[in-house]
Amino acid sequence: MSEPRFKRILLKLSGEALMGSRDFGTDPEEVGRIASQVSDLVDRGVEVAVVVGGGNIYRGIDGAARGMDRATGDYMGMMATLLNALTLQDALESRDRYTRVLSAIDVREVAEPYIRRRAMRHLEKGRIVIFAAGTGNPFFTTDTAAALRALEIHADAILMAKNGVEGVFDSDPVENPDATFIPELTHLEAIERGLRVMDSTALSLCMDHDVPIHVFNMAEEGNMGRIVSGERVGTIVSSGSPESRSGSHE
Fold first, then answer.
1. pTM for the predicted model, two decimal places
2. The pLDDT of residue 133 is above 90
3. Which residue, among 50, 36, 51, has the nearest Cα to 93 in the 3D structure?
4. Where are the domains of the chain?
5. Which of 11, 144, 171, 181 is the most buried (most CB within 10 A)?
6. Are strands 235-238 and 213-217 parallel, antiparallel or unpaired?
7. DSSP assignments along 142-200, one per residue
8. Helix (H, G, I), strand (E, B), or coil: what is residue 227?
9. Is 162 exposed, middle or buried (CB count within 10 Å of its CB: 0-12, 13-18, 19+)?
10. Topology of the domain covering 8-246
11. What whole-number distance in Å separates Cα of residue 156 and Cα of residue 138?
12. How far apart are CA 167 and CA 161, in angstroms?
């Protein structure tokens, strides 16, 4: 394996990535596969933080569509992310990895409260940090949480895992078989074209602070390792500068 291009990365996992072939919930086999890939990165000296979604269990916006108060639904979604974080933590620890779950809402019996300096210290000690409960605020997605936490911990890049999709397309490849794959674009282009990379708030944060986003297919074994090695995998969303593509973000 080549020397890792990135020292510290933030992996954004959707809740759906933990489902495998199931319609909802989590698939232990799929969770284990993800945990093994994350563990391999740690073996190579990469510091790994994870933001996990909760869409496999509950989406606040879905509850709002059925008449529930949006803020209430979003708090329920935050609790779903905590369940996923604990599931992933258990899979990682079964592989002898030191792992910490840091939650943006107070659940001290099962997770540490999110404190930025504590998170960075855990990473420096080689522990895998899993951020749960999004930003702790309703009306913000876990995409925005991923962008925010990446900035706070000085991550070199965000690895945006997609479920069975190779990267970014000009339209939904599931609905449109003629959709065109886009290997590289800027944050601004993604916002202006309304491409489904991250929500616009998250993309704006990454654009303003020059954080590159690598969008890749989580289902293909070894993709994370290849990205960390500097290989071109999936789609790169960057400021367009050579520095943002080379992993020199400070």
1. 0.91
2. yes
3. 36
4. 8-246
5. 11
6. antiparallel
7. HHHHHHHHHHHTT-SEEEEEESS--SEESS-TTT-TTPPEESEEEHHHHHHTT-SSS-H
8. helix
9. buried
10. Carbamate kinase (3.40.1160)
11. 27
12. 9
Average pLDDT of the residues of the chain? 91
How many angstroms from the chain centroid is the CA of residue 156? 13
Relative to beta strand 47-52, strand 128-132 is parallel
Position 168, amino acid = V
Greatest extent of the chain over all pairs of C-alpha atoms, in Å: 52
Torsion of CA 77, 78, 84, 86, to 10 degrees: -150
Q: Are 15 and 34 spatial neighbours (Cβ–Cβ below 8 Å)?
A: no
Q: Which pLDDT score, from 0 to 100, does residue 244 have?
A: 47
CA distance 70 to 177: 34
* CA angle (71, 76, 80) in 5-degree steps: 140
pLDDT band of residue 65 (cuts 50, 70, 90) is low
Closest by Cα among 216, 211, 169 to 190? 169
Rounded Cα gap, residues 90 and 50, in angstroms? 14
CA distances from 29 to 35, 97, 129, 161, 200 (A): 10, 18, 21, 17, 33
